[in-house]
Write a structure and sequence with these properties.
By secondary structure, this protein is α/β, with parallel strands linked by helices. It folds into 2 domains: 200 residues, no CATH class; 220 residues, Rossmann fold. It has 19 helices and 14 strands. The strands form 4 sheets. Strands 7-6-5-8-9-10 form a 6-stranded mixed β-sheet, sandwiched between helices. It has a 4-stranded parallel β-sheet with strand order 2-1-4-3. The chain starts with 30 loop residues before the first helix and ends with a strand.
């Protein structure tokens, strides 16, 4: 294990570790700011201090004025709790109450007073509709108390679009007369002319991260084309998530007349590409074309040139006449939608910050079901809430031989130490540093199928002092050993851990992993990405790098020229799209320059 000597203190008494950007990141307006350990020692001292003209106020230094601070904290906590009680019908999340008690016991005048800057934003800046019953989905109403505030605000245009889409889901979704008529026409094989309601059915049978990204991609497509979103329920989506649309469902009814959706392949006659190939459809025709009632938009990793025309303008005009589109995809295809010229103006209005698409769509769509939220909230309160900085480390190995790899372990420690995300440990015999008063407490949350990395990192920080003198807690909620497709308990834990990672201040993720993509997007955090090694017997150098944005990577972009109708790299011609750091041929959205 690589070890470092203790960093030298500067003239002002600030070490290299303390001066790093990650070491001084404050958390404001979150539940964690409220919580402190009950056994925290009294920081007040009655001993007079000597004057020092050159005295500088350090990142963790606090001035203690016992009586005034206690009164101030008591007043602020009382007022804020009273406001929340009145605004929320007398209900306050348990995490706030426990936090307020801890703050009062401590009596600190720290700048991180409970909700000193803003109260929890339950509606996420307007993303969520007001007036939804709090008993139907706890996470929808409570999660903002656990998450740090985000500087990314949804555009007014996106907020208005979401309200209109919710009305569309109620008017045309399952249970409505319009849906019944549409299903009857589909069962009869009739194509509805000028259909009042059109639909996208999202189907993905991959891992949970892929299913989340696929559903988000399908949802954006429905916003752009005024279609109803229905999600295939055969992969457990109904068990893991709350319904996102108030007064409507997003789940495809079990009596849907088209069977075998889970078995769609690239060879199916109903795929858009094969319909073009077999002359069932013609996108180039200037005359009105008779279209089928249903077509498969096959966008998985093995799709061909015909299916890639989904991202072409002429083909989108033709598909707009098809009432039912079944979107079979296994990745995040949003960057591909940004390559469709006819969508450009609408996308710019919806997302002025093009690197926050999944951040907004994910927080709107994906609320953990109550049993999943129980796992998240209990674990957070028990192990994470008292930390002033949470560092999430997501470790995904793609080969069984890497499950106990010292090279992967070295990659993790090299990354967090090189980027100063965590303090290094001292070599044997080095003098132990006394922790600075009021220093930041850090906790590491490790998400991995394997327990080996967690055990080594936890032991390292327990058995050896750190170069900064601070203590580091290390936690891992579960270790399932291997991915278990279709098993409800496995998916439940996976979703809980994705969400817990999204509550972290700093993220280190494994390249290629959709698990990490979901967490970073929900968090609104640009991660450090650990590069996938080309040689499993070596540690990559450098071990990691800062990603270009928090957006997920589109692993299989079309690379298709719609005008020339052949394979071509058109990514450079589209604003706000760059190559991914982890998948070199992949595409991802970045912010405007």
């Amino acid at each position: 294990m690589q070890q470092r000597k203790a960093p030298k203190a500067s003239a002002e008494g600030v070490t290299e570790q303390e001066a790093s950007p990650a070491a001084v990141l404050p958390r404001t307006a979150t539940a964690r700011d409220l919580l402190e350990a009950e056994e925290a020692p009294d920081q007040c001292s009655m001993t007079p201090r000597k004057k020092n003209k050159k005295r500088q106020t350090g990142a963790g230094e606090r001035r203690c004025r016992p009586v005034l601070n206690l009164l101030l904290v008591a007043f602020v906590v009382a007022v804020l709790l009273a406001v929340v009680l009145l605004a929320d019908g007398g209900r306050v999340p348990a995490v706030w109450i426990a936090a307020a008690r801890a703050q009062l016991r401590r009596g600190s005048g720290h700048a991180w007073l409970p909700y000193a800057r803003n109260a929890p934003d339950k509606l996420l800046g307007g993303l969520l509709a007001d007036g939804v019953d709090g008993e139907t989905c706890r996470s929808r109403h409570e999660s903002s108390a656990y998450r740090r505030s985000t500087p990314r605000r949804p555009s007014p245009y996106l907020v208005a679009k979401l309200r209109r889409h919710e009305e569309l889901q109620r008017r045309c979704g399952p249970g409505s007369d319009a849906y019944s008529r549409a299903v009857q026409q589909l069962s009869a094989g009739r194509s509805a002319v000028d259909a009042e309601c059109k639909y996208v059915v999202s189907v993905c049978n991959r891992g949970l991260g892929n299913r989340i990204l696929a559903a988000a991609s399908a949802f954006l497509y429905t916003l752009l084309t005024d279609r109803v979103l229905l999600v295939y329920r055969g992969n457990g989506m109904g068990d893991l998530f709350c319904e996102p649309f108030p007064g409507a469902t997003w789940l495809l009814p079990p009596d849907f007349p088209v069977a075998g959706l889970a078995n769609i392949t690239v060879d199916a006659a109903e795929t858009y590409g094969n319909m073009l190939k077999n002359k069932v459809l013609t996108a180039d025709s200037k005359e009105p074309v008779q279209v089928p009632a249903l077509a498969y938009a096959y966008l998985e990793h093995d799709y061909g040139d015909g299916d890639k025309r989904f991202f072409c303008d002429d083909d989108q005009r033709l598909m707009s006449n098809i009432q039912w589109l079944v979107a079979r995809m296994d990745t995040y295809s949003v960057p591909g939608l940004f390559q469709v010229p006819s969508f450009a103006e609408e996308l710019a209005a919806l997302f002025p910050e093009s690197d926050a698409v999944f951040h907004h769509l994910g927080r709107y769509l994906f609320h953990p079901a109550d049993h999943v939220w129980g796992l998240v909230s209990r674990y957070y309160r028990a192990y994470l809430a008292r930390a002033e900085q949470l560092v999430g480390v997501q470790v995904r190995v793609f080969d069984s031989e890497q499950g106990k790899s010292p090279h992967v372990l070295r990659q993790i420690t090299s990354c967090v130490w090189k980027e100063k995300l965590l303090p290094e440990v001292l070599a044997a015999g080095e003098p132990v540093i006394t922790p600075a008063t009021g220093g930041i407490s850090r906790t590491v949350l490790i998400a991995s199928l394997r327990p080996w990395f967690y055990e080594r990192i936890k032991s390292m920080y327990w058995e050896q002092p750190t170069a900064s003198g601070e203590d580091v807690g290390v936690h891992q909620p579960s270790h399932e050993e291997y991915q278990q497709f279709g098993r409800r308990s496995h998916d439940t834990k996976a979703w809980a851990e994705m969400y817990l990672l999204s509550l972290c201040d700093v993220l280190v993720t494994s390249g290629w992993s959709t698990f990490g993509y979901v967490a970073q997007g929900l968090a609104g955090v640009t991660p450090w990405v650990m590069y996938r090694p080309l040689n499993f017997s070596e540690t990559p150098d450098p071990p990691c790098g800062r990603d270009v944005s928090m957006e997920p990577c589109f692993h299989t972009p079309p690379m298709y020229d719609c005008k020339l109708k052949h394979t071509a790299d058109t990514a450079r011609s589209v604003p706000h799209i760059r190559r991914c750091e982890d998948v070199k041929w992949g595409l991802k959205l970045v912010g405007p320059k």
